Amino acid sequence: MFNSLSDRLTATFKNLRGKGRLSEADVDATIREIRRALLDADVALPVVRAFIGRIRERALSEEVSGALNPGQQVVKVVNDELVGILGGETRRLNYAKRPPTVIMLAGLQGAGKTTLAGKLAHWLKSEGHRPMLVAADLQRPNAVNQLEIVGERAGAFVYAPEPGNGVGDPVQVATDSLEVAKSKLHDVVIVDTAGRLGIDEELMQQAADIRTAVNPDEVLFVIDAMIGQDAVKTAEAFLEGVDFTGVVLSKLDGDSRGGAALSVAEVTGKPIMFASTGESMKEFEQFHPDRMADRILDMGDILTLIEQAEKNFDEKETAKLQKKVEAGEDFDLNDFLTQMSGLKKMGSMKKMLGMMPGMSQYKDQLENFDEREVDRVEAIVRSMTPAERTNPKILNGSRRSRIAKGAGTTVTAVNQLMERFTQAQKMMRGMTRGGGGMPGAGGGGGMPGMGGMPGMGSMPGGAPNRKKKASGKKKGRKGGQSGNPAKRAQQAQALEDKRAGKTKDPVGSAFGGVDLDGEEEFDMKNLPKGFGGMFPGGK
Asked: For the region Disordered, what residue ranges are annotated (predicted)?
């Protein structure tokens, strides 16, 4: 959603790099571009004016002029202000002291309330709660039936005493649901209410009556993130009529410009609490203003990646693999399959890679990446016998031909996979000798199975682009020897160490040496502790 805004802001900040001092003209030019980027993103005009005013004031202050790197300080100022208009701090659900906690959903028809109710229930289950869904939308055709289907997908009980389609009293249904929740020991009640195509008095009155009847602990306003500046008017109307406590953004994975997300919190003063980022039940997350601001400015969202990895990777399997690597045993295809399974559970590979810092420059490769390639790689490995997975060295021509037929692919694809896997094994050995973090995935400095996938060769973590071969040799120097005597001595020592088996295989950067900020290469060792279970070189 924020791709266009992110591209515009990133391009604007590139003009500030390397400047030892920023003039007022530099600041004005930067602010002008930021204003245009925000207006193009359909951010509400009052929000743009307030945002730009605060940035200008801080950019011309001593905070920036006295900084060692004024350009980076301006980026920090913009980041801080983005966090501010997105809500400032992460707002978590308020749970009742005595269960059940009542969460009421409100919003226009078509905003995605019913689907989001199921996603919220699924998320609450993952947090250890026992949610119950209440079908209080009795006006929209088949709304009750839809909630029952969504509830089944989420694994949550649905209270639906009325058939809907214009039949039944939604206020009474919501009231009765509290006693049902207590009797069935559900600690969270999610009330799905009716919507309209537009704001009207009947809609607001019904929502207000339900609120009065159940006295909810949270009233979440569900808004379609794709409706642009209309989001502000709708939010203000619901704030006046229902007085919601938080906002949930649906359809954040859409291709609109993202103005709603950057406007609603600033205009209403209510925090954005959750965001729906896709079609599946798992594509729903708590909203963190600081992380979203980092994504917009192409700084990545490593913390969210870590949280997803912790939820989806089996701790026992990870610990088992770590012990295996530390003991000097080879990483085999059974381990590879386990790690692939963990990666698949984390969801879309495109989204996961998109959370990496500096990925805007690889936008085209990400768009061209085929998610099914992960399934094809898994199919190849599953077509092998247990003996072949444990000892890949026995894979001769006839075996590879059989595996290719079993996976419905070509021998070339099998050979490419095994080539990347061999690189992963070498990297593992190098990390063991070098004391690096235990990788949950690896291969050419990235995730196993991804290095040579179509469209990924030139991306961070991908296999080297074979069209660009660098021999490292200079003309007139046999064997690539340096003309510098000291360097020649160093090369000779390195060659001697290699023959003696003392050298370490290079681990490399998981980002393929991409210069993210124009000054220094991103180092995976700087990632938060625990991330090493997913990427090589981490702690």
From this structure: 431-539
Q: How far apart are CA 459 and CA 365, in angstroms?
A: 7
Which residue's structure tokens are 């099914």? Answer: 372
Left if phi > 0, otherwise alpha if psi is -120 to 50, otherwise beta: which for 475?
beta
DSSP 8-state symbol, 536: T
The answer to whether 108 is annotated as binding is yes
Instruction: Tell me how far apart the alpha carbons of residues 258 and 265 are, in angstroms, rounded to a whole number.
Output: 13
How far apart (Å, rounded) are the C-alpha atoms in residues 160 and 136?
A: 8
- What distance in Å separates the CA atoms of residue 86 and residue 197, rounded to the nearest whole number? 27
**For every one of its 539 residues, what pLDDT tens digit does the chain have, with 9 covering 90 and above?**
566 777 778 777 777 776 667 777 888 888 888 888 888 887 888 888 888 998 888 888 776 766 657 777 788 888 888 888 888 888 899 999 999 999 999 988 888 889 999 999 999 998 999 999 999 999 888 899 999 999 999 999 999 999 888 888 999 999 999 999 999 999 999 999 988 777 778 878 888 899 999 999 999 999 887 776 677 788 888 888 888 999 998 877 765 566 777 788 888 888 899 988 878 888 888 888 888 888 777 666 566 666 666 666 666 766 666 676 666 666 788 887 877 777 777 766 666 766 676 666 666 666 676 777 778 888 899 999 989 988 888 999 999 999 999 989 999 999 988 888 888 777 766 655 554 443 333 333 333 333 333 334 434 444 444 444 444 444 444 445 555 555 566 566 666 655 555 444 333 333 333 333 333 333 434 444 333 443 433 44
Report whether 497 belongs to an annotated binding site: no
The owner of tokens 């694994």 is: 155
Check whether 112 is labelled as a binding-site residue. Answer: yes
CA 192/CA 148 separation, integer angstroms: 11
Task: Judge whether 196 is annotated as a binding position.
Answer: yes
DSSP 382-432: HTS-HHHHH-GGG--HHHHHHHHHHHTS-HHHHHHHHHHHHHHHHHHHHHH
176 is in an annotated binding site: no
397 is in an annotated binding site: no
b vs e for 202-213, b when ≥16 Cβ sit within 10 Å of the residue's Cβ? Answer: ebbebbeebbeb
Measure Cα distances from 12 to 5, 251, 299, 515 in Å: 11, 28, 15, 17
250 known ligand binder: yes
Check the annotation: does 249 bind a ligand.
no
426 assigned binding-site residue? no
C-alpha 187/C-alpha 134 separation (Å) is: 13
Q: Is 114 annotated as a binding residue?
A: yes
User: Is 113 annotated as belonging to a binding site?
Assistant: yes
Is 91 known to sit in a ligand binding site? no
487 annotated as ligand-binding: no
The pTM of the whole model exceeds 0.70: no
* Per-residue b or e along 395-429, where b marks 16 or more CB atoms closer than 10 Å to that residue's CB: beeeebebbbeebebeeebbebbbebbebbbbbbb
Taking 3-state DSSP, the helix, strand and coil percentages for the chain, each rounded to the nearest 5, stand at 50, 10, 40
